[in-house]
Amino acid sequence: MKRKFFLHIILFLSAFLLLWFLLSQVNFRKTLRIEEGVNKLEKTLGSWSIKLFLEEYPKVESKEVESYVNNLLEKIKHPQSRWADETQLFILESEQVNAFALPNRKMIVFTGLLRFADKPEELAGVLAHELAHIQEDHVMEKLIKEMGVTALFTLISGEYSIRVIREVTRIISSTAYDRHLERKADELAVKYLMDAGIDPQPFLHLLTRLSDEHPDFPQELQWVSTHPHPENRVRYLQNLIEEKKEKGYQPLNKNEWSSVINQLREPS
Amino acid sequence: MEYNSQHMTPQELLRQPVSEGQAEKASNSYLMSLVAIMAGIGLPLFNMLATLIFFLSNRKEGYFVRWHSTQALFSQLILVFINSIGFYWFLSIIFSDRSFTNTFFAYLAVILLVNLTEFVATIITAIKTRKNKHLEWWLVGPLTHIFCKP
Q1: Set of chain B residues whose Cβ sits within 8 Å of the Cβ of A24
Q2: How far is A250 from chain B (nearest CA, A)?
Q3: Per residue in A127-186, pLDDT tens?
Q4: What backbone phi and psi angles, to 5 degrees, belong to B120?
Q5: What pTM was computed for the model?
Q6: What's the pLDDT score for residue A210?
Q7: What is the model's pLDDT at position B2?
Q8: Distance between CA A21 and CA B23 in Å, rounded?
Q9: A30 burial class (0-12, 13-18, 19+ CB within 10 angstroms)?
Q10: What total of structural domains would you count in chain A?
Q11: Residues of B with Cβ-Cβ distance to A12 under 8 angstroms
Q12: In what order do the strands lie in the sheet with A99-102?
């Protein structure tokens, strides 16, 4: 009887694994329209959330500021990267030292961050970090985890209530990604900066400065308060930079940067 | 009619007629898992717990009842094992950085098929056992014979 049982269990496992393997060849994601549903959801969430932010914060008026930050982002974008051409940047008037990625490859940078940055390289570091979140599709991943499957199924079914969209914007702008997603974005940011010939050290300096000057992370410093502790980030990024041993960065033009900062409206 | 069980194989013993009460108890051991589903408890663990409770309460019963309670319990154990893998896989997708891959959906399809087969087999066996007919499942039957002796 034992022999019969072992024969049966071997046959059962073989049939189970074979069937599993054969069914794995079916493209369920396409059949179940998962990509299509998530893409549709991402587009809608992106356009609704940007609308809400624009209602709350005015866009920066100066074309010079807009063009400078956009050019800086263009410089960082890796041409082979996904969504390189689709990423859209919005610079909004707010004293918050914050920048974040929204669904559908949109990025928001507050003028508070521009004022806080001593050098254009510091801003470039934050832009590179948020760009990495976009490139790696972290935004939707974060939303799925934070909001849960049920809420997303409701959204996919087309029931977009203003309450849900507000919740999306709250999650995106004021909560952290998973620690490993943040680390991945940090590491990619350093890579993007180095590939673009921009010195990554000022980015690390910005992180240190934020934690030194504002150890308690007030509300205005949301970008650093919602991320892993700066000391840890500086440590692992410093190791990464030393491993790569790149030298000879071309400093970004300081006069241009000063001119851009002068264009910003005085905080009210 | 009297039978000398010492000269019979377990299979022959199980094919002997039993009382109405014994047939009903044996049939109920299969129905326990279905009752748990009908009560709205979809989690496989509850189906298994229902059959486990029934199995434990029937330990002193005749061979026919014990054998079928054991077969029902083992069938649920196998289901619990493969369903739990799917369940924890699903949770790991929700709470970590994994995604819904085609391999995951394929696994779901296979376990759905196994569950459906088990569901149909359970109903058929419950009906047959109630009519005093002995039915041994493929894979689970030989396993039951190893653990359940006359």
Answers
A1: 102-103, 106
A2: 37
A3: 999 999 998 888 887 887 777 655 665 665 555 566 777 777 888 777 777 778 888 899
A4: -65, -45
A5: 0.65
A6: 76
A7: 44
A8: 41
A9: exposed
A10: 1
A11: 139
A12: A88-92, A106-110, A99-102
Which residues form the domain of A218?
30-249
The one-character DSSP state at B5 is G
Per-residue pLDDT at B89 exceeds 50: yes
The answer to the question of residue A244 being in a domain is yes
> Which is more confident, A87 or A150?
A87
- How far is it, in rounded angstroms, from Cα A32 to Cα A52? 31
pLDDT band at B71 (very low <50, low <70, confident <90, very high): very high
Measured between CA atoms, the residue of chain B closest to residue A138 is B97
pLDDT band (50, 70, 90) for residue B1: very low
What radius of gyration do chain A's Cα atoms show?
Answer: 23
Helix (H) or strand (E) holding A109: strand A106-110
Measured between alpha carbons, how far is A96 from A110 in angstroms, rounded to an integer?
6
With a CB-CB cutoff of 8 Å, which residues 101-140 of chain B face chain A? 101-103, 105-107, 109-110, 113-114, 138-139
Q: Which residues of B touch A20 (CB under 8 A)?
A: 103, 106-107, 110
Closest by Cα among A129, A134, A91 to A206:
A129
Cα angle B49, B55, B60; round to 5: 155
Q: Is the pLDDT of residue B67 over 90?
A: yes
| CA dihedral for A142, A85, A111, A237, sign (positive or negative) | positive
Whether the pLDDT of residue A108 is over 90: the answer is yes
Predicted confidence at residue A238, as pLDDT, reads 85
Average pLDDT over residues B90-98: 76
Kindly state the tokens that stand for A24: 């794995």
Question: What Cα–Cα distance (Å) separates residue B72 from each residue in A41, A153, B7, B24?
Answer: 45, 37, 27, 14
User: Kindly report the CA angle at A177 between A170 and A79, in degrees rounded to 5?
Assistant: 105
In-domain check, residue A202: yes
Cβ pair A52, A169 in contact under 8 A: yes
Residue A19 lies in a domain: no
Residue A89's H or E segment, with its range, is: strand A88-92
The number of CA neighbours under 13 Å toward the Cβ of B67 is: 25
Q: What DSSP character marks residue A59? A: B
pLDDT at B148 over 60: yes
Contact A181 B100 (CB under 8 A): no
- Mean pLDDT for B94-122 is 87
Assigned domain for A181 exists: yes
Phi first, then psi: give them for residue B136, nearest 5 degrees.
-105, 130
Instruction: Take residue A235 and report the two structure tokens written for it.
Output: 């440590």
